[in-house]
Design brief:
Length: 268
């Protein structure tokens, strides 16, 4: 049975000056990636791929505390079967692959924490500009699961297998300076400068380019990135299904749900 979910207003977008801006808009819950939000992301990037006036796309989260924090434990609580797990990984990969394949560069405006599925969303983008209070973590192992939306593949490509293995196995959360040193962030906004201004300066050299140039730049990146992508993502997904349906995962979910003052976001 396919996943059942309701479309929502969890994601907003607009186009201005040749730039597509997409935002996850659930700041009160640290911008979790609901199934509806993933579907909206997929639809937005699929639809806007045909806009030949675009030069750049930006992905961010609402507020100043979170970029995206992972899945919603309440929403995912009953999705325990192998069929559910396969549908979940396919659903998430479709959304993030729409970003990976988008015809112009996509910048993650990492305005806060990016955890679990949120880290996968950030790495699906071509570049990551982070606030000084931002942090990123592939914390899936803390919930006894593995990545499933292509994020593990992206991580290994970006930082190499040794560092990638360490980050996945230990479930580390890296503050902005450390994430910059590891290559997970491309640039971090300096202290004392408003984040919006720093980000505007970062993208200024791109938004003034010809749309044709930006499509050419992204075409080269896509050619490199899609090399062997389907096989690698298939391996990742198969392991996710095994870990998601394992009793250890649901025991970890139950333990997390019992912690006080914890937003209901998961590693996924």
């Amino acid at each position: 049975m396919p996943l059942s979910y309701a479309m929502s207003g969890d994601v907003s977008h607009h186009v201005s000056g040749g730039v597509l801006r997409v935002s996850v808009d659930r700041a009160e819950k640290r911008n979790p990636l609901s199934l509806g939000a993933l579907q909206q992301i997929n639809e937005i990037f699929t639809e806007k791929a045909d806009d030949h006036d675009l030069r750049l796309a930006i992905v961010t989260g609402a507020g100043d505390q979170a970029f995206a924090s992972g899945g919603d434990l309440v929403e995912l609580a009953d999705m325990r079967s192998i069929e559910n797990a396969r549908s979940l990984t396919l659903h998430g990969k479709a959304a993030l692959n729409a970003i990976r394949r988008f015809p112009v560069p996509v910048v993650a405006r990492v305005n806060g924490i990016a955890l679990g599925g949120g880290a996968e969303l950030a790495l699906a983008c071509d570049m990551r500009f982070a606030a000084s209070n931002a942090a990123i973590g592939f914390i899936h192992s803390r919930l006894a699961i593995s990545p499933s939306w292509g994020g593990g593949v992206d991580l290994m490509r970006l930082v190499g297998y040794s560092t990638g293995t360490r980050l996945l196995a230990r479930g580390e959360i890296l503050p902005a300076p450390k994430a910059l040193a590891f290559g997970l962030f491309d640039e971090v906004a300096p202290d004392g400068v408003p984040f919006d201004k720093s980000f505007a300066d970062y993208i200024a050299g791109m938004v003034g380019q010809s749309p044709h140039v930006m499509r050419a730049v992204k075409a080269l990146a896509v050619e490199e990135r899609l090399n062997d992508l389907d096989r690698r993502q298939h391996v990742e997904s198969e392991h996710f299904v095994k870990t998601w349906t394992d009793a250890a995962h649901w025991a970890a979910v139950a333990a997390m749900a019992e912690r006080p003052n914890r937003a209901k976001g998961s590693g996924k």
